[in-house]
Design brief:
Elements lengths: L1 E7 L8 E7 L6 E10 L2 H8 L15 E8 L11 E4 L2 E3 L5 H4 L11 E2 L19 E5 L4 E2 L6 H4 L5 H11 L7 E5 L3 H12 L3 E6 L5 H6 L4 E4 L3 H6 L4 E6 L8 H4 L2 E9 L10 H5 L4 E4 L5 H14 L5 E5 L3 H9 L6 E5 L14
Helix pairs in contact: 4-5
């Protein structure tokens, strides 16, 4: 086994502590990747906060990271040592089901192997994520990081970015489209950047006006207040696509009413139970959709598009030793708009422990 170091949680409370980690020896089609930057996702927070006191396997979060290839298996053809790469939240799939054959590995019928908390398809071990200095991944599930993309600010593209990119492309967003993005957070701010770059007339929907300046800076032409009944009524039946990235439980009826006839609300943020009034869909032949992550072809296309248009996430870069602080702040929504961890401090043997 290979040995590295990272931030691991066991039991509860699920604070992360610096510990030695084991990675598998390279299989023929594997890459060894030095993790340079790893984004902090709401999914990481949820994984930590829902752990039980006993019985859960060790957890190392992190599923949107960029790094550098340090070693390759004998069958690797696309990468060599020194190449910059990016890895998202899926690191394997069956490869044979209709979804995998269609390039939608994210919808693999036998469920994709997740970057952390998944089950390795060969040896049955639990996958440990990118809050670490090294990751071992199949070549097929690594992406070349295009030149010109800042590797720290590009890391969130591999989860937050692809999560909003797939529905924008599937729904045909482009010049002439009217798009609204509900919630200006980690997903939402990238949805705005991408919709604007695709040529759509883009609006932001928020509860408060404090993000109006950010919305304009990101390219949106207006901010609508969901707390203002008059503004919401005036925007009824207006948007061809509404991307709902709100992570907290909320009613979607008010947002469906903003969708134009034959338009679509893509619900991406909150993964819990959802209540829909049939009349909110019936009046206007409106559609409700969702999406999760993205397949390998779409992820490659996203990275190329972002390189062409100069799109990366708005980030706050922190030493990885501040990971618990980042998670606490994320619980309070105190970030604009994505934390990214600099993993280089793990090279220092006496680096401070994140639990200190």
């Amino acid at each position: 086994m290979r040995t590295t170091v990272g931030w691991k949680a066991e039991g509860r409370p699920a604070a992360l502590r610096r510990e030695a980690l084991e990675r598998r020896e390279l299989r023929p089609d594997d890459l060894a990747v030095r993790v340079d930057y790893c984004g902090v996702c709401h999914s990481d927070l949820r994984a930590l906060d829902t752990r039980s006191a006993e019985g859960d396997p060790p957890l190392v979060p992190g599923h949107e990271f960029t790094g550098t290839v340090t070693g390759t298996g004998p069958e690797v053809t696309r990468f060599r040592a020194g190449d910059p790469v990016a890895v998202g939240n899926i690191v394997d799939s069956c490869g044979t089901c209709p979804m995998c054959r269609a390039g939608q590995e994210n919808f693999c019928h036998s469920f994709p192997t997740l970057t952390y908390g998944g089950t390795d398809r060969q040896d049955g071990t639990t996958t440990l994520g990118g809050y670490a200095r090294e990751y071992v991944v199949r070549e097929r599930f690594a992406h070349a990081l295009p030149a010109g993309l800042d590797p720290a600010a590009a890391a969130p593209l591999l989860c937050a970015g692809i999560t909003v990119w797939e529905p924008l492309r599937a729904l045909g967003v482009g010049p002439g489209s009217r798009v609204a993005v509900a919630g200006l957070g980690g997903l939402g701010h990238l949805a705005v950047k991408l919709a604007v770059a695709l040529g759509a007339e883009t609006s932001v929907i928020s509860r408060t006006p404090d993000k109006a300046e950010d919305a304009r800076r990101l390219g949106a032409h207006e901010l609508l207040l969901s707390s203002d009944p008059e503004q919401m009524a005036a925007a009824r039946d207006r948007f061809d696509v509404l991307v709902d990235t709100i992570s907290a439980p909320h009613e979607i009826g008010p947002y469906l009413r903003l969708v134009a006839t034959d338009g679509t609300l893509s619900h991406l943020g909150h993964l819990g139970p959802l209540t829909v009034e049939a009349m909110d869909l019936l009046v206007g032949r409106k559609k409700l959709s969702s999406a999760g992550s993205g397949g390998l072809p779409a992820t490659t296309a996203l990275l190329e598009f972002c390189a062409e248009h100069g799109i990366t996430a708005d980030i706050e870069l922190l030493p990885s030793a501040q990971v618990n602080e980042a998670l606490d702040r994320l619980r309070r929504n105190d970030v604009r708009y994505r934390f990214v961890l600099d993993m280089s401090d793990l090279d220092t043997p006496d680096a401070p422990d994140a639990s200190a």
